[in-house]
Amino acid sequence: MLEPCETMRGVLERLCAEGVTLGVVSNGLGRGYGHDVLQTFDLQKYFSAAIFREDVSRGKPWPDSIVAALHGLGRDLRRNDVVWYIGDQSKDIGAALAASQVIGQTIRPFALGARAALGAVESRLSPSQIMWTAADFERTVQQTFDLPQSESPLISPLPAPQI
Fold it and tell me: How many domains does the chain divide into?
C-alpha cells in the first residue's frame, strides 16, 4: 500500500481550510484498495466525492470519472466556479479537457510530474499548469490563496477552486 506524501496532505489541509470542495478520481479499484487507502490514512475527510474504476463504465482518458466526481460533490456547479483537475498521468490531462466539453464549463488541468507534463505540453497548456513536484503544487496553492485573487497568476477573481 502506498503512503501519502506529507506535502500533499498539507495542501489538502490548506484547500479545505480555504473552503475548497475536493473530489478524488482514480483509474484504480476502490474496493480492496482505493477506499482502504483513504480510510487507513484518514484521507476520506478531505473528499466530498471519491470515484474509482468500478464506479464508471470507462476510465480515463475518457471524462466519465471526472464528470461523476463533479456530480458527486454535493451541489451543482455554478457558472462562476473555478474547477481545477490535478493529474499525474498524460491521460489525466486529456480526460479533464474532455470533461470540460461534457459539462460545458472550463476545467483547468494541472500536470503533476513528468508523465502528466507530456500531456500538458501536447495539449498546449500554459507552463503555469505544469508542476514537477508536490512542493511546486504546494507553492501554487499558497500563491493562489496568499495573493488577492485579482493579482493571482492562476485564477480569475472567482470563488475558490473545486478540485
Answer: 1
Give backbone dihedrals phi and psi of 56, rounded to 5 degrees, phi first: -135, 160
Mean pLDDT, to the nearest integer, of 8-16?
Answer: 92
pLDDT above 80 (res 154): no
Cα–Cα distance for residue pair 130/109, rounded to 1 Å: 9
Instruction: Kindly state the helix (H) or strand (E) to which residue 36 belongs, with its residue range.
Output: helix 35-40
Sort residue 40 into left (φ over 0), alpha (ψ -120 to 50) or beta: alpha
Whether the model clears a pTM of 0.90, i.e. scores above it, the answer is no
CA angle 95, 158, 128 (to 5 degrees): 50
Q: Is residue 7 included in any domain, yes or no?
A: no
Would you say residue 1 lies in a domain? Answer: no
